[in-house]
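WARN no homologs supplied; continuing
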Amino acid sequence: MQALGLELADLFPEKLSFNPGRAQRFPAREILMALASEIEIAALLILRWIDPDRDWKPDHYDRLLLSNSRIQNAVNMLGGHHG
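OK structure emitted
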């Protein structure tokens, strides 16, 4: 670039801002409020599962897996992880 008489600022006149310590933020409260029904559904299904007097159907298991997936996706969006 020096051979052409240019500097890096000539190629990029706008200063780009970069903050390596900040990831995209999601509104945690809104995500938790949206997941409240999923958490309730998961709790009710788990209670049904452990009650020997209640029927457990394959659809219940599928719905529990869906709730788990949605909850885990929200955790991941918030920067968390699961083990």
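Helices lie at 8-11, 28-50, 58-77.
OK
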